[in-house]
Write a structure and sequence with these properties.
Elements lengths: L8 E2 L8 H16 L4 E2 L7 H9 L12 E3 L2 H11 L1 E6 L9 E5 L4 E7 L2 E7 L2 H14 L2 E4 L18 E3 L5 E3 L2
Parallel strand pairs: 1-2
Antiparallel strand pairs: 3-8, 4-5, 4-8, 5-6, 6-7, 9-10
């Protein structure tokens, strides 16, 4: 236990999942965000669509990005399923995989796979009309982007992704930091 000055920069990536933690931490974090001597870096990134649009404008990075579109109607999803028979919906806002829906189509069904808490859930539709109605309700609640369903599983069948922390150095050039 020690006392030290508040740092000039604070990056908060804490996720508070207990009510006591939230109640205790929120006033402190809010005070830090308002403190003029502190640059608070825990405000989060802009939405996924804005990030994609910015990255898409870079000729080098854009070639590595999966085909991505903002979803307005169920017909867009059905068009994608006709081409690829699968796709992934991601909420434009949010993080940590919350709200992501994998969609697979066979000749008889459209199957959704998603997580609710730590449980993997499945929902099956036997008609495109029923699926479209469900999608329209979903899209009225939240904005989604759609991407191809990439196979990102390790040798044990668990999903994974690779995240890089890039930062500009003192010369304005991007460097891999972590």
């Amino acid at each position: 236990s020690d006392t030290f000055p508040i740092p000039s920069f604070i990056y908060d990536r804490c996720f508070y999942n207990r009510k006591e933690s939230i109640k205790k931490s929120k006033p402190i974090v809010n005070w830090l965000k308002k403190n003029p001597q502190v640059t608070f870096l825990g405000f989060g990134l802009p939405d996924k669509w804005r990030i994609f649009s910015l990255l898409q404008s870079d000729p080098i990075i854009s070639s590595y990005l999966p085909d991505t579109e903002l979803v307005y109607h169920a017909e867009q999803i059905l068009r994608r399923l006709k081409i690829d028979s699968s796709c992934l919906l991601k909420p434009v806002t949010g993080s940590r995989g919350n709200g992501i829906i994998a969609i697979n189509q066979t000749s008889e069904t459209i199957t959704l796979t998603y997580h609710k808490g730590s449980d993997k859930k499945t929902k099956i539709f036997y008609s495109t009309k029923e699926f479209s109605g469900w999608c329209e309700k979903l899209l009225h609640q939240q904005t989604y982007i759609m991407q191809p369903l990439l196979s990102l599983y390790d040798s044990h069948g668990y999903p994974f992704d690779i995240r890089l922390f890039l930062q500009k150095n003192r010369y304005g050039k991007w460097e891999l930091v972590g």
